[in-house]
Amino acid sequence: MAAVSAAVISGCGGSGGGSSSSESKLAPGQFEWHPERSPSGPTLVVVSIDDQMAYVYRNGVQIARSTVSTGRPGKETPTGVFTILQRKVEHESSIYKGSQMPYMQRLTWGGIAMHAGDLPGYPASAGCIRLPFQFSQKVYGAMTNGSTVVITKKRSTPSRSSRPANLLLASRAAAQENKSIPDPEGRTIWNPSKSPSGPYSILLSYADNRAYVWRNGIQIGQAPLGMAPGGKPPEGVFLMLEGQDQPDPRFPGLKMHPWSTLSLDGGNSNGNAVATLRSQLSLPADFRKKVNAVLTPGTILVTTRESSNKNTRSSAPMNIMTPQPK
After folding, report:
1. Architecture field, domain 7-155
2. Which of 32, 59, 167, 244 is least enclosed, having the fewest CB within 10 Å?
3. What is the pTM of this model?
4. How far is 79 from 325, CA to CA, in rounded Å?
């Protein structure tokens, strides 16, 4: 699952100004908001449960951070990769009658959402992610249905990939570069008519040896995934950004979009993740061509060691992998 100007730090319900280029500790209810750092592009929110912080990245650039309050013991906030399913400025919880959830952005149909709420300085919610009121307004305005939210135990910092991730999905087989990768075997499915519009999401499951493609939360394709024996490809979230990198002479006509790389294990990501994936994985040529033809800025690619099943996905129509805490 990201130009520096004056920092804006707000308390609960109030705002103020100041200059800061370092990430000093924020008091409960405070946040920083710098939309001018990156005026356009796909938006990614990363929530760190350990830090009780949320970070907002637009087109790979961090534009905001805020204190949060996540789930309390017994009502923990799930970790994983989510897309916004539903948004309401005014919303009342259907589980906890009378509980108001302003600027609600739903992550699962089972009751997990981001919304404005009290921030006591420690995990206190029933599983939702509480945000300062003014920050919730700003994040609501920056996101749409289909935007990506990554929830981790430890903070993960996205980095710009030095090898565009769509090279993994390029028309030439990775197996040509690494002869140890077996040819993928199994059924390939491609039914884009099942969901003609909306954001694309791609999941590579190492446990299943399968690639899955969803559009607007509906599965439209899947294919076998070839893996190098003994390989340990990384787990992470890759978000296609706006702009275009230098073309790769090996793939004439293929647009090289930059990608943001985010580790699912915490810590800093690095551009070597894409090269590692490409050296250890292979997809059927026809499937790669079809997927690469529909990639647009905002597409997310998730790689994980988890299996894709009902226990690792939230309820329909949200089908992005939600790994359990380690």
Report:
1. Beta Barrel (2.40)
2. 244
3. 0.82
4. 6
Number of residues assigned to the chain: 326
Coil, strand or helix: which one is 19? coil
**Higher model confidence: residue 181 or residue 259?**
259
Record the tokens describing residue 290, joined without a space.
């079809």
pLDDT of residue 4: 18
Which residue ranges does the chain devote to CATH 2.40.440.10? 7-155
pLDDT of amino acid 94: 62
The single-letter code of the amino acid at 117 is G
Instruction: Give the residue from 183, 188, 163 showing the smallest Cα distance to 278.
Output: 163
pLDDT of residue 177: 54
Q: How far apart are CA 40 and CA 105, in angstroms?
A: 20
| CA–CA dist 236, 305 (Å, integer) | 10
How deeply is 19 buried, as exposed, middle or buried, from its count of CB atoms within 10 A (0-12, 13-18, 19+)? Answer: exposed
pLDDT of residue 256: 85
Residue 196 has pLDDT above 70, yes or no: yes
pLDDT band at 234 (very low <50, low <70, confident <90, very high): confident
Q: What is the rounded CA–CA span in Å between residue 276 and residue 270?
A: 11
Domain 159-304 in CATH 2.40.440? The answer is yes
**Which DSSP state fits 71?**
B
Q: 30-62 burial, b if ≥16 CB within 10 A, otherwise e? A: bbbbbbebbeebbbbbbbbbebbbbbbbbbbbb
Higher-confidence residue of 58 and 95: namely 58
Q: Is 228 left (phi over 0), alpha (psi -120 to 50) or beta?
A: beta
* Long-range contacts of residues 58-61, Cβ cutoff 8 Å, at least 24 apart: 58/2, 58/142, 59/2, 59/241, 59/242, 59/243, 59/297, 60/2, 60/158, 60/160, 60/239, 60/241, 60/258, 60/260, 61/2, 61/3, 61/37
